[in-house]
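[job 4471] stage=fold_predict status=RUNNING
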Amino acid sequence: MLISFLSKERILLLFISSLWIFHFLGFNGHYGYDDMEYAQIANGILQGDFPINNHFAYRFTLIFPTVLMYSLFGLSDFTSLFSVLLASSGVLYFIYLFCKDFSKTSLFLALGITLSFEYYLIYSDKIMPDIHVCLAFVASIYFIYRKYFTSTNSSINGIGLSASLFYGFLSKGTILLILPLLLFFLIKDLLEKRDLKFWIKSALWGIAFLVIYFFSIYLFSGSFSQRFDAIVANSYYSRCSYDTQSLKILIYRISFDFLNLLKFGELIIPSTIILGFALGQLKKGLLKTKTPIHFFSVVFILLLLSSNFMSISYKSYHPMCLDVRHFLYLFPFAGIALAFILSSDLKNKIILTKAIVIGLAYLYFTQTDDFFTYRLIIGLVLIAILFSNKKNGKKIAIGVLLLILISNPIQLIEGAQRVDYKKQKQLVRTALIENPVAKYVITDPVAARLGNYWNEFDSSKAIFVAYDDFSKESFKEERKMFLLQNYASRFLSYYEDSNYPYPVKEALEGNALLADSSIGLSIYEIKEWSSPLEDGKLILKSSNTFEETPDPWTGKKEANQEAIVFEGKYSNWVHEYSPTLKIALDTIDFKNSKKLFATINLMAYAEEKLEGSLVFTIKSNGENTFYESRKIHPFIKSYSKWWVVSANFTIATDSIPPNSELLIYVWNSDKKKLLIDNFEIEIIGL
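[job 4471] inference complete, writing C-alpha cells
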C-alpha cells in the first residue's frame, strides 16, 4: 500500500497538500453573510475604522491576520482566506502530533477520515472564525493528552493549554463548550491526586492572559466589558433563541434536532461506532482514559454531550445553535477515535456490528439522501471488522474505505466546477464593477454582499443593494440602476423569487443585457424604480385588527382566548382558515389598469414550525382562475414572538374573467397554533 512507502511526516504533508489543492480546485465561493462582514471589518480597520460596537470585530485571530494580509497584498479571495487555510492545516498538524507515536495506518486513517467530512472541507476555507475555534480545541486537548501519555512537563503543558484556550477565546465564544471536558479531567486528576501542578500553572497562565486582554481592551475602548457590551448590543431574536421559546422547542433541540445535525453533518455513523466501542468497555469502566484509544473515545463522547446539552448563557438554559460550522471541532476527534478503533485488534466486533446496524436503521427510517454513500461506508467498516484477523485483510479493507471516503471531496470539487465561482466573479467585475458608469446594482442579499466585497467596498462607482433594502428615496439621479440575477447567490439567500419588489418584476419582463445560462447569471437595466402606490391608483385599502369584523371581511371570528395579541385586545387564532377579504371584482374600478398589484402585511405568531400560507386567489364560478400563496414560516425569525409577514401579488387585468371574486386569507393547513393580527391589504391599479 501507499502508506508503507511514506514516512509519517510525508503522510502529514500529503494531507496538508491535499487540503490546499482542494481549496484551489473545489472552492465554491463565499457563504455571503458573516464572512463578508469579517472581510468588511478587516478592510475598514485597514482604513482606520475599528467598529467598536460590532462584536465580530473582537474575533482577533481571524480579523488581525486578515488585516495584515490586506495591508501587504491587497484585498482578494486568497488574502481573505489565508489565515483560515493555515488554521485548517494546523488542525491536521495536531492530528499528526496525536498519532505520530502509533502506526502509519492510524495516522493515515485519522487524517483521511477528517478530510472526508463534507462540512469540515466546506468551512476549511471560509472567512469565519469557526476553524480557528476548532484549532483551539485540538491544541487544548493535545496538551492534556501530552501530560497523560508523552510528557509530564507541567510548565510546557500548562502554558500550552492556557495559550490554546486563550486563542479560542480570541476567536469566538464557542470555546466555552470545552469546559465540561476540562472539568472532567480536572476532577479525575483531583480524585487520583495527580498533575495538580499542571492545573495550577494552567490557571495562573490563564489569569495572566485574561488580565492582559481586558486591560488592553480597557485602554483601547475605555471599558473592560466592551466586547460583551457589543454582544448584548448586537443580540437579536432568532430560532436559536431557545431561552425565549417554548419548552417544546427546547426539548426538540436537544433530541431530534441534534440527531438531525449529526446525520446532516455525517457524524451519526462515527458517533454510533465510537459509542458502541465505549459501551463495549463497560467492564473496564466507561470513562477510563488509560490508553489513547479510550482517551479519544471519551473526549469525543464528552464533547458530543457538551455540544448538545451545555448552555452558552449563564442567565438561562440556552444550548448552542445547531449550525454545523459551530461544531467543526467534533470532526477531528471523530476521525482520530474512529481511526484508532478501526486499526485496533477490535475485540468487541459484535457490539460494533450492532452499533453500525443501529446507525444504518436510523439513516434508513429517516430517509436520508446520503443513504447510498453511508451504506458503502458501513459495509466497508464491517469488512474491516470481519477481516481484521486475516492476512492483509484489514489493510485491503482500510484502503478501499479510504477510496470511498475520497468520494466526498470529489463530489464537492465537481459541484464547485458547476457553480463556477470564478466565472461569476469575473462576469460581475467586467460588466458592473469595472464599467466606469456610476450605478446601483439591485440583487439578492448574498450577491449584494459579494458584489461590495468584489468591489473592495468602494462605493464611488458601484453600490450593490439587496432587493428589499432599496427604495425610491435612496435613489440618486446621477446613478443608473441595474438588476443582477445570480442563481447561486439566490439559492444561498433563501429568497422567494415570487416576492420580488415590483420594479424587479418589471425589469425581468424585459431583455437581459447579459446572460450566461451555464451558471444562471443575468444582468438587466432598470429604467425607473417605480413605486406602485405613488405611480398607480389605489383601488382598495382594507385592514382587520380583529377587534371587530369590518366589511368586506367574512368568516367567523376565531378570537384568541389567551390574550396573546400584537396590539389591541384581540388577535385571531387561525385554526384552519382566517377571516377572508372577499370582494366581487366587478364592484371595483380597474378598467384603466393593465395590472393589479396587491401588497399585504400582517403580524404572525407561532410556537413551532408550521405550514401556514398567505393566500391570494381569484375565483370564477367557484373555480380558481388565479392562485398564489406565500409560506408564513420563513418570516418567523423566532417562535413565540410577533413577526411581520409581508408579500405582494401581481395579476394582469385582461386575465381576470367577468363575475370573479378576489379572496385573501391565511390558510393554516397543518392546524398548528398560529395567531395573526393587524391584517392590512392594499390593491393598486397600474
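[job 4471] summary: The two ends are 73 Å apart (CA to CA).
[job 4471] exit 0
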